[in-house]
Design brief:
By secondary structure, the protein is of the alpha+beta class. Helices cover 53% and strands 9% of the residues. The strands form 5 sheets. The protein has an 8-stranded mixed β-sheet with strand order 7-16-10-14-11-15-9-8. A two-stranded antiparallel ribbon has the order 1-2. A two-stranded antiparallel sheet has the order 3-4.
Length: 927
């Protein structure tokens, strides 16, 4: 391998190891110096994993709780338990400490938690670890606070739908519960909102932990590794906290508005609550929107905040402008007939009762489903145990007091995190000789996968060793071949030189007889040289032959090396595959253990207690509540209309002037109804399974009150009484002995009341005047005086025409009640002790915008076919300001000559005494 290739390979391997190291750091950021902080966080959030029973005395250690005994109520108790887990502070206080806060939520100086470390400079790894701890601590705190505040919210909202065997108070003030919930949510928001402002980039808004639910993020795995817990992001939990705060605050303000509607101070207090609710939710939504992208804001349920803000803003604007959406501004004259209101109430009450029945039936089914789900989850738990047995080869019984001690006997409670960690440690090869011995000895899936993985590692090592042996053989062959070549070449040269020397030596023959004579024989020298050449050639041939044989050996060894490389790669793939199988089985085991823990029977209770999961039931309850509130409002309006019809307040008992006061109907049944505002104090629509008083009982009490009133009030109803009111004489007072002066004064008065209209040639006439019943000058002093019908007659001056030219169509006169109506009650005793209901009318802005408007057809000098007008029927004739108007562009009015009017007569037919009979609501069986 070339040197450059080796450097590239080393670089790639280093990059892979570096990336693997980064991935490991991201997955398991817990480092040794901060294990104490992580331990505090794990101990604090153990309150929601359950299964730890509080100690009964100081000497007793914490015990394992059986699965069916744990639920949300236990979570709330654990969250606030200062001895939970054997510590000296509650999980709530520990979470606040990790956020750098005191037990009251105030910033602590100095801090000792993740918040303090997060403010310090450090490496990327250090910052990420501190952010992770800070995120999880803040998320756990928001979950715990929501758990507490949501309890009061649910109790306040479901006073009519109590969960069986719940911790809800039997009978507690709804306003008190909602105020408690509002205050708890607000206190939690002050802490969480301040943290979001201090560290907006440290909070998580989304991750890739779940593609279906992008707001899910993965928490830090425990020290034993594995997959971290999937939870909602911090921004999602903060949004949910703000949303629930808005629900609690608006619910409180609405109930204050309902219960205290007749009191201006109470309405102002409700308006202030709506204002604070809208401001708090709006400002929080700005913080949430600023810290996230638009997509994350929507994914984290940010759009839901607008609903609570809109509700608060609408109610606040209505109250502030003086408009009451419930039309409850003190006494009022009903805009529609009492029977019309009763008919509407009958429909709404029917809907409310039926919706209430649906909600209660769902609640009953809910309890039945709870039992079924518990059985199903128990079956699932057994199935998970079976899977653990298949994977690990051991069935874990509940704790027998000996602890979780593998591998001889696995005595573990898989509901305990520590024992689950022990089971996971047993299935991992990193945990020491005991675990490895167990994995090699059992026949379960994980053990088989482990042995296959281990065997693949052995095969890989064998191939690697075979490769190394071949490389050693090649080196030995190269060294041997070189040595043989050097020997052959050396020996051939030496022999050749000896041959050459021998030939030369033989070429010279000394003459021993003559020491100076030497005989030279060239043939010997040539023979020696030839032998020398032959020797060298033979040596070269032997060298070449040796090199050829060595090359062949090396090629064979190289082929063996390549074959071993292929075996080594095949073994490496087998190792990866076996490792994947083993890891997958470990993941299956971890998933089964986690599913077993979360599918315990006790979590069935948590599932059905958490309102986030009660979709069908919550919708039914919401529908029942909306129908119930609508029926309450209509019942109140119908009661005020009934009071106006009787010219008395609804009282229980009814005042009897001839004897002791009379209770309305059955005292035990109707004792909760004592005023019109009692409509907002009812507890249910009318289901017998819910507490009294119900709205149906309230409606029945109205009928009982009406019946009692007809017994003790007199006189009986008198109809058809008529009174002629001459406007010039009886109202304006132009009744002096000088008739000419009276007529002149009347015409002058009419001329001063002409106003521009849509007829450019003739101004309209708007004549304002009062009618009173304070004395008997116009109407008699009788109780409950009401109009039945009214007719108008235009009286012309003698010899003059009011309508020119004459027309068979009658003129049209607008008659409006404008100011305040007076109704003489049944307790009036004129002139010694008179009594009135004083009722403020709405004060019309124009003729046609008042609900107390009538357009009457007028006769002229008693001639014509105009029918009496009944638009003001059942209204009091005693109105402090009437408006009589002629619109001169309206039909035949264009031909009126009002200057020729001598007088305007109003003929009012009235009734007094008892009102007419009413058709009270009748509740039919629900379909």
């Amino acid at each position: 391998m070339k040197r450059s290739d080796r450097i590239s390979a080393v670089f790639v391997v280093c990059c892979i190891l570096l990336l693997a190291g980064v991935g490991r750091a991201q997955k398991e950021p817990r480092s040794l110096p901060f294990l104490d902080l992580w331990s505090q966080l794990d101990a604090a959030r153990a309150y929601r994993t359950g299964f730890v029973e509080p100690r009964t005395d100081a000497s007793e250690t914490s015990r394992v709780r059986m699965p069916s005994a744990f639920g949300f109520r236990d979570m709330r108790e654990n969250y606030l338990d200062e001895t939970f887990g054997g510590a000296s502070s509650s999980p709530r206080e520990r979470l606040l400490g990790l956020l750098g806060r005191t037990a009251t939520g105030q910033l602590a100086v100095p801090t000792t938690g993740f918040a303090e470390q997060l403010a310090l400079p450090g490496s990327v790894t250090f910052r990420r670890e501190m952010e992770q701890g800070y995120q999880e601590a803040l998320g756990e705190f928001m979950v715990g606070e929501t758990l507490l505040a949501n309890e009061s919210l649910l109790q306040g909202l479901r006073t009519r739908y109590r969960v069986e065997n719940s911790a809800d108070p039997a009978d507690e003030s709804q306003l008190g519960l909602l105020q408690q919930s509002r205050d708890r949510f607000l206190a939690a928001l002050r802490v969480a909102g301040e943290e979001a402002r201090r560290n907006p980039t440290a909070l998580r808004a989304a991750s890739l932990a779940s593609f279906q639910f992008p707001f899910f993020v993965e928490n830090t795995p425990t020290t034993s590794g594995g997959v971290g817990e999937l939870v909602e992001s911090e921004y999602y939990r903060l949004t949910d906290l703000v949303n629930r705060y808005g629900i609690a605050h608006n619910a409180l303000a609405k109930r204050q508005f309902f219960f205290g509607n007749a009191d201006p101070a109470s309405r102002a207090l409700a308006a202030d609550e709506f204002k604070r609710s809208a401001q708090g939710s709006y400002l929080s939504s700005i913080l949430l929107a600023a810290g996230q992208s638009e997509a994350d804001f929507q994914n984290n349920n940010g759009g839901e905040l607008d609903r609570q803000i809109t509700i608060a803003q609408q109610y606040f604007d209505d109250i502030l402008s003086g408009f009451n959406p419930l039309t409850l501004l003190g006494d009022f004259v009903p805009a529609q007939s009492t029977n019309g209101l009763f008919a509407l109430l009958e429909t709404q009450l029917q809907d409310a009762v039926c919706a209430e029945n649906v909600a209660l039936d769902l609640q009953r089914n809910f309890d039945e489903d709870l039992t079924a789900l518990s059985a199903e989850l128990l079956d699932q738990s057994e199935a998970y145990i079976d899977q653990v047995d298949i994977l690990l080869g051991l069935v874990p019984p509940f704790d027998t007091g000996q602890g979780c001690a593998p591998p001889e006997e696995l005595n573990c409670d898989l509901a305990k995190p520590a024992d689950r960690d022990a089971v996971m440690a047993l299935a991992r090869d990193q945990t020491g000789p005991a675990s490895v011995t167990y994995l090699r000895g059992c026949d379960a899936t994980i053990c088989n996968n482990y042995r296959i993985w281990e065997g693949s590692n052995i095969e890989f090592e064998a191939a690697a060793q075979a490769q190394q042996a071949i490389l050693s053989q090649m080196q030995i062959e190269e060294e041997r071949a070189g040595e043989v070549t050097r020997i052959i070449e050396g020996n051939g040269l030496a022999v050749g030189l000896l041959e050459l020397a021998s030939g030369i030596a033989q070429a010279y023959t000394p003459d021993f007889d003559s020491l100076l004579m030497v005989t030279w024989s060239p043939s010997s020298a040539v023979a020696g040289a030839f032998d020398f050449a032959i020797g060298l050639a033979q040596a070269a041939a032997e060298v070449e032959l040796e090199e050829t044989e060595s090359a062949a050996v090396l090629k064979n060894l190289l082929l063996e090396l390549v074959a071993q490389e292929i075996n080594k790669r095949r073994a490496a793939h087998a190792v990866v595959e076996a490792r994947a199988e083993y890891t997958a089985s470990i993941g299956d085991l971890q998933r089964f253990l986690r599913n077993y823990a979360t599918s315990r029977a006790d979590f069935a209770d948590a599932y059905f207690t958490n309102p986030a999961y009660q979709v069908a039931l919550d919708r039914a309850i919401q529908n029942a509540d909306l129908s119930f509130e609508a029926a309450m409002v209509t019942a109140y309006k119908a009661t005020k209309a009934l009071e106006y019809e009787w010219a008395e307040r609804l009282l229980n008992p009814v005042v009897d002037p001839n004897g002791p006061d009379r209770p309305i109907g059955d005292v035990a049944l109707f004792n909760g109804v004592f005023s019109a505002e009692s409509a907002f104090a009812v507890r249910s629509a009318g289901n017998s399974r819910l507490p009294e008083p119900s709205l149906q009982t309230y409606v029945q009490s109205l009928q009982a009150w009406d019946s009692t009133m007809r017994e003790v009030r007199g006189p009986l109803r008198q109809e058809g009484q008529t009174r002629l009111v001459q406007l010039r004489r009886d109202v304006l007072g132009f009744d002096s002995p000088d008739l000419a002066f009276n007529r002149l004064a009347f015409r002058s008065h009419l001329a001063s009341r002409r106003v521009p209209g849509f007829n450019p040639f003739k101004d309209d006439l708007q004549l304002d005047f009062p009618l009173q019943i304070l004395d008997q000058r116009i109407f008699p002093a009788v109780p409950n005086l009401k109009i039945q019908n009214m007719s108008v007659d235009l009286r012309p001056l003698p010899g003059r025409e009011v309508l020119v030219p004459p027309s068979p169509n009658p003129p049209l006169v607008n008659v409006i009640h404008d100011d305040r109506a007076f109704v003489r009650t049944f307790f009036a005793n004129y002139p010694v002790d008179d009594d009135f209901l004083t009722i403020d009318l709405e004060g019309s802005r124009s003729f046609r915008q008042s609900q107390f408007f009538a357009q009457a057809e007028a006769t002229i000098d008693g001639v014509g076919s105009a029918a009496p007008n009944t638009q003001l029927a059942r209204r009091s004739p005693a109105v402090s300001l009437w408006s009589l108007g002629f619109e001169m562009d309206n039909g035949v009015n264009r031909d009126l000559v009002l200057e020729n009017l001598d007088d305007i007569w109003l003929r009012i037919t009235y009734a007094f005494g008892h009102p007419v009979e009413f058709d009270f609501p009748e509740i039919l069986p629900c379909p």
